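This section describes the prediction task in plain terms. A model, or a person checking by hand, is given the sequence of a single protein chain and must write out its three-dimensional structure as a string of tokens. No templates, partner chains or ligands are provided. The sample shown here is typical of the held-out split.
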Amino acid sequence: MNFEALAGELRNLRENVAGVTDTVLAAVDGIPIIADAADDIDPAKISALAAADLGIARQAAEITGKGTLHQTVVFGSEGYMAVYAIGRLALMVVLGDKGLNVGRLLFESRPVIERIASILAA
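The expected answer:
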């Protein structure tokens, strides 16, 4: 696995989208793969939480007939947590502060997810 390429993708997303503070890439079972996060962020806890979030949202999308889940976004009073499905095997978590440009994140994240999927598949 090319950890350097994965780290570069996470770092570039943080640098290109205003308000992104931390990113974590994890297996769908909640095991962290790599993180670009502050010292006070525990990638293991974030990964486990995101896996649960993704699992519930994936079930909701399927049961309600809304198709394949792509992402969830949690809007909090102090910021955001977005969880993106990367196929059925991985997920990406993006944390952002109150200044996060959510529209820009949605636009920028799709090609990043595609590149990460390719890196993971190699």
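For orientation: DSSP finds three helices and five strands in the chain.
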